[in-house]
Amino acid sequence: MKNDISVLIAGGGPAGIATALSLVNRGIACMIVEPEMPADYKVGETIPPNAKPMLIRSGIDQLLADPAHLPCYGNSFIWGSDIPAETHFFTQTYQQGWHIDRTFFERQLRRHALSKGVAWLQGERVIHCEKQENGWEVSLQGDGNSRSITCDFLVDATGRSCRIARLLGLQRTRLDALTGISAMMTTEKNIQPYHTYIEATVNGWWYAAPLSDKKLSVAFMTDADLMDKQMQQPGYFLENAAETSLIGSLLEGRLQTENIQINLHPASTSLLRQRFGDSWLAVGDAAYAFDPLSSYGIVSALEGGYYAGHAIADALSGESDALPAYDGIISQAFHIYLKMHAQQYQLERRWEASGFWQRRQQPFVDDLKTVAPFSQRFPTI
Ligand SMILES: Cc1cc2nc3c(=O)[nH]c(=O)nc-3n(C[C@H](O)[C@H](O)[C@H](O)COP(=O)(O)OP(=O)(O)OC[C@H]3O[C@@H](n4cnc5c(N)ncnc54)[C@H](O)[C@@H]3O)c2cc1C
């Protein structure tokens, strides 16, 4: 008997949407299941300049031309030295990145996916899945009701929760305990230059990203076990931010705590040990999640989705090396990230007694022996 849909994608974030766009381009019917209604706030705003070719390839570059998204022309930072420094994208191949209005971007992606023929189930979540002879039976729940849908192929694009993989009994490995404490605030005037502001401190690092409508996204990143719990109070968070040099200078005169909500986010470098199997794969943060210092999570999710869609289309037409080839590509990107991550953190040696920095002076143990042999099927990321 024919299944209800060819590909069911759990998760309507960047990874799920990019997978769906790639699939519909290949003429394959797919459906996204997304439990959350569009939220007012989602963390993660910076898209680096080198994302441009992939945005064009995925047909979504025009979404960033909307004035809701600001250009970003470089980084201002205090890292590895007390002296503030800057890098400018101006001398690079692509001269600007973006500071996106994240919730608007996710809405744009959703509208774009719908316009391309992607089916979308809002307000329901995958709670169970069972392998059948010719695909999957997937149980969904929403608004107190449940039902089941059958599909040929199942995609785990549920972010760090990797819900499908966990339902299959698979394990996730965390390589650190990084946690983000973030707040969105409104400033009196636009903060310029349009840079990403990064500042290392004794127990972690801060970032700030100016957004449209005079919004400023500020976050402190530290390890969960080192976190000062008081940082969850807006006043204390702002006081600590104000004591820093670079981030503090952006906040001058903006220490009102009204309307500031503090959010906590898991932000560790983490990975699923097994990222594909019989008629399923994981994509985006569900497969590999990056430290926000890399500003690579959204790009990786979009890029992974692009390749995942092609790999699924090939697998459905009987190509047995399609899923290992996909895994080879995303695993290779993760290995490159691990090297860059180690180099970046090892530049900061001012606080030798600090647990946060000590933990990052050695590269994470790279024992990912399960990386599939890289195949030339797709161009490298
Ligand atoms: C503090 C912080 C700062 C960051 N800053 C940046 C940045 O500046 N630049 C950058 O590129 N990245 C940044 N990131 C990372 C970036 O946000 C993620 O990498 C990106 O969102 C991953 O996309 P995704 O689609 O894989 O997962 P998500 O965006 O997490 O989407 C997963 C979706 O799955 C849905 N879902 C969950 N469970 C189920 C279920 N059972 N059934 C169906 N659906 C389900 C969720 O509702 C969600 O919508 C940051 C992350 C953190 C924590």
What's the SSE blueprint?
Layout: E1 5-10, H1 14-25, E2 30-34, E3 46-47, H2 52-57, E4 70-72, E5 74-78, E6 85-88, E7 97-99, H3 102-115, E8 119-122, E9 125-132, E10 135-142, E11 145-156, H4 163-167, E12 172-174, E13 178-186, E14 195-201, E15 204-210, E16 215-223, H5 234-243, H6 246-251, E17 262-266, E18 270-272, E19 276-277, E20 280-282, E21 288-289, H7 297-316, H8 322-346, H9 355-358
Parallel strand pairs: 1-2, 1-11, 2-8, 5-14, 11-20
Antiparallel strand pairs: 3-7, 4-7, 5-6, 9-10, 10-11, 12-18, 13-16, 13-17, 14-15, 15-16, 18-21, 19-20
Bound molecules: flavin-adenine dinucleotide (FAD).
Strand content: 25-35%
The computed structural class is alpha+beta
Nearest-angstrom radius of gyration?
21 Å
- Small molecules (ligands, ions, cofactors) in the structure: flavin-adenine dinucleotide
Count of domains = 2
CATH topology of the largest domain: FAD/NAD(P)-binding domain
Largest sheet: 8 strands, mixed
In the CATH hierarchy, what is the class of the largest domain?
Alpha Beta
| Assigned CATH superfamily of the largest domain | FAD/NAD(P)-binding domain
Shape-level CATH architecture of the largest domain: 3-Layer(bba) Sandwich
The average pLDDT is 92
Distance between the termini: 38 Å
Percent of residues in helices comes to: 25-40%
What is the helix/strand order?
EHEEHEEEEHEEEEHEEEEEHHEEEEEHHH
How many individual helices? 9
Low-confidence stretches: 369-381
Counted beta strands: 21
* Broad shape: globular
